[in-house]
């Protein structure tokens, strides 16, 4: 499948690499290919600069947001939450129309200091904002409740016996995303319901962050015990 | 230990019964003993009226909020979130001073319809509001992430292999509450940190509610897989 992964950060890189490894035709979309390909500093997390990653993944194309989205059958939003709507606008409403958009972004707000709060919560969510702005796109929120390594390789932790959630209005889109999650190794996939249910997974963020601090380990996820 | 459980609803009843069963001297506190003891209708959840429960638990005293709190060594807030601050004010700041207060309430807001949203979230929490209002009380937030049956009997589900969180500023109070949780059967107890960390457990509520709807079973809890 032709897949566009929007975002060049650690989440975008990890998802793009996994999708390519699984045999998909992957393009990473970025605001400026030139800027991305001339970065020479490690990112905020100490990861190598993007061009180094791109060189190690020659089968993955790097393109503008517009070109990546227009050529894709499925689009992944791995941009940071605060910039997601504008990145998707740059990708182009028409280029996203009718397509499944996997939204992984969280609405992190750093202006109040650490740990971050959320810039939208409780009676709305980033997933809903995106679905309202791009009405012809089939938004499925998922994978926003664990780190990038676990997203694409859940079996690394507890034999994979933990949970991923999904939210979205379109049943067929959720079936497609479920198959993709299964190809990553997920077996416990809980469909929470329509896109409003992603308020739950986005609002899980403070509990996730505090749990990581408490156990001093980023390799953590929830299992829904029932 | 002499324990006051404030609140006559299903959570208060279940916690009070368990604490009494474990040999504690338990008083249930309510705004009006007369009102509570003359109720003749089932509650909103279809549970029998309070006097029936009180009759089945003759070893548990029913008293005013003030009397319950003043006689107690430890106090449990099992009132509904919207009324918690005023119920604790009725219990009396002096009667709560120096004591451990286990806060189980969630800040549920029903004015926007179902499912409920939260009346405080993101940059503040009900647990923090209570701690700020009652500065001399040692507030420990816990047990607010599962139903009442699981709170007091975690081994009913998955052999007890799931998680309870706690948040609070006072380390000694958290040690005391941990022992109490262990006496209920909890083995995986995650101390998230100070009282601000209960934003996380309170904001978990939407995910909890949507997960229950999705799996159509209220007997559900999280396990922190690490």
Description of the structure:
The structure is a homodimer of 226-residue chains. The first copy, chain A, has helices spanning 10-21, 33-37, 50-56, 65-70, 81-91, 93-96, 126-133, 148-152, 171-184, 198-203, 205-215, and strands at residues 2-6, 25-30, 61-64, 74-77, 100-103, 108-109, 117-118, 138-142, 163-168, 188-193, 221-225. Chain A has 226 residues and is of the alpha/beta class. Chain A has a single domain (2-215), classed as Rossmann fold, CATH 3.40.50.720. In chain A, the strands form two sheets. In chain A, strands 3-2-1-4-5-8-9-10 form an eight-stranded mixed beta sheet, with helices on both faces. The first copy, chain A, is globular, with a radius of gyration of 16 Å. The mean pLDDT of chain A is 97. Chain A binds chain B through residues 112, 117-118, 121-123, 157-158, 161-162, 165, 190-193, 197, 199-201, 203-211, 213-215, 217, 219-226, and chain B through 112, 117-118, 121-123, 157-158, 161-162, 165, 190-193, 197, 199-201, 203-211, 213-215, 217, 219-226. Strand 11 of chain A pairs antiparallel with strand 11 of chain B.
């Amino acid at each position: 499948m032709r897949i566009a992964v929007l975002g060049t950060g650690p989440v975008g890189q990890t998802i793009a690499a996994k999708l390519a490894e699984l045999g998909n035709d992957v393009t990473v979309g970025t605001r400026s290919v030139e800027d991305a390909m001339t970065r020479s500093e490690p990112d905020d997390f100490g990861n190598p600069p993007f061009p180094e990653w791109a060189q190690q993944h020659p089968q993955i194309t790097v393109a503008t947001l517009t070109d990546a989205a227009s050529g894709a059958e499925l689009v992944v939003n791995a941009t940071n939450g605060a910039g997601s709507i504008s990145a998707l606008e740059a990708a182009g409403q028409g280029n996203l129309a009718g397509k499944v958009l996997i939204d992984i972004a969280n609405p992190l707000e750093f202006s109040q200091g650490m740990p971050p709060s959320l810039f939208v919560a409780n009676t709305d969510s980033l997933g809903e904002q995106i679905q309202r702005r791009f009405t012809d796109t089939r938004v499925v929120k998922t994978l926003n409740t664990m780190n990038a390594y676990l997203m694409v390789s859940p079996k690394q932790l507890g034999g994979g016996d933990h949970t991923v959630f999904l939210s979205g209005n379109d049943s067929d889109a959720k079936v497609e995303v479920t198959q993709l999650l299964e190809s990553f190794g997920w077996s416990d996939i809980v469909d929470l319901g329509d896109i409003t249910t992603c308020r739950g997974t986005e609002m899980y963020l403070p509990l996730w962050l505090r749990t990581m601090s408490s156990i001093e380990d980023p390799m953590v996820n929830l299992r829904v015990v029932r």
